[in-house]
Amino acid sequence: MESPEVSRVAALATAVSLALWGVAAQAADVGWNGKAEAPRYQEQIFPPWQHGANNPAVGKGLEFTVPEVNNLPDFHGNLDNPQLTIFVGGNYFFAMAPLVAAFEKEHPELKGKIFYETLPPGILIKQMQQGGTITIGNMTWTVKPDVYAAGLKKVDDYIRQGLLQGPAVPYVTNDLTIMIPKGNPAHIESLKDLGKPGVRLSMPNPAWEGVARQIKMSLTKAGGPALANTVYDSKVKNGETILTHIHHRQTPLFLMQGLADAGVTWKSEAIFQEQAGHPISSIPIPAKDNTTAIYAAAVVKGAAHPKWAEAWVNFLKSPTALQIFERYGFKPYTGGKAKG
Questions:
Q1: pTM (2 decimals)?
Q2: Each residue's pLDDT tens digit, 257-279
Q3: I need a labelling partner for 266 at 20 to 30 A (CA). Which of 93, 101, 202, 328 fits?
Q4: How far apart are the C-alpha atoms of 10 and 147, rounded to whole Å?
């Protein structure tokens, strides 16, 4: 027979358990505002969109990818002793697979030995400042880049700061566009329409994406400071502008999910989405309002593989690489300065 003390402890434990269950049940009820749906893991909607083509590893072992949950779309290759590690802003993640394949064809000894990341340039720099160590979910690893690629101005800045060694090598340019869902249900026609009440936007986060500065310049050209302020301040505060958590890879995803009506991205990204067969389209931005970016790369100071780093940087401006870039609307860099 239980003592009174044991009974009281058991009763208390039961009460606590029921209380915790009630809290959990309540959290489950309100966590998604009662609108949770069974997951529909469609590879044509959720990244990684290249169906493994962006993974240059040779022996892939067990392939375990769950779209939307376990996919790591910005990390490519095998971390087991890579001979060339590239940190490149996510602006052309879709072009990296054919670029790497072409480079490996010229240097077969590197087959399966290239690793690259396509996070936003600002986040890549933060990883470099942490000694190359990064944690995602429950996994931590360290990889130090041999090459860093981003906008020319940023690459020049990091050379001056001593993170990279010169020279910065520019290779292609890119222009902005307004990405929209196929059919353009919000009837977007220009940058000015992005400021209209009720138009939901997905926009690059200024905290780590350099393109946000260039977008603000284009918004200002099209509608003055008031338009830029509406898109990047007023609409952020009232919830009509979603700022990306990673980079503008999220914008087409939000558009396809019906969470946004439009977003400004690089033209090349809209071209890729259409080529991939996604229900995505775009609205051209006139040259007078547009902003041109110049992409450049440089060898990282103290790179473990300087020979291959220099070879990759030079490869980016080769006819072979430029032909690949041109598939997605990039233009060869011919000199001059960016508009913004």
A1: 0.81
A2: 899 999 999 999 999 999 988 99
A3: 101
A4: 62
252, two tokens: 């087409």
Q: How far are the Cα atoms of 24, 235, 254, 296, 299 from residue 218, in angstroms, in the given order? A: 47, 17, 22, 21, 31
Q: How far apart are CA 183 and CA 193, in angstroms?
A: 16
Peptide bond into 167 cis (omega under 30): yes
Residue ranges of alpha helices (H) inside the chain are: 4-31, 93-106, 121-129, 152-161, 211-229, 235-238, 250-256, 267-275, 306-315, 319-326
3-state percent breakdown (helix, strand, coil) of the chain, nearest 5: 40, 20, 40
Amino acid sitting at position 173: T
Residue 280: DSSP 8-state: E
Check: CB of residue 308 under 8 Å from CB of residue 110.
Answer: yes
Give me 241's structure tokens.
């502008």
Interior angle at CA 207, CA 202 and CA 209, nearest 5:
65
The answer to whether residues 267 and 205 touch, using CB atoms and an 8 Å cutoff, is: no
CA distance 188 to 258: 15
Q: What's the CA gap between 147 and 113, in Å, rounded?
A: 14
**Which residue, 145, 58, 60, 65, is CA-closest to 109?**
58
Q: Is 37 exposed, middle or buried (0-12, 13-18, 19+ CB in 10 A)?
A: exposed
Give dist(CA 118, CA 337) in Å, integer. Answer: 25
Please write the tens of the pLDDT for every residue from 178-235: 999 999 999 999 999 999 999 999 999 888 777 888 999 999 999 999 999 999 999 9
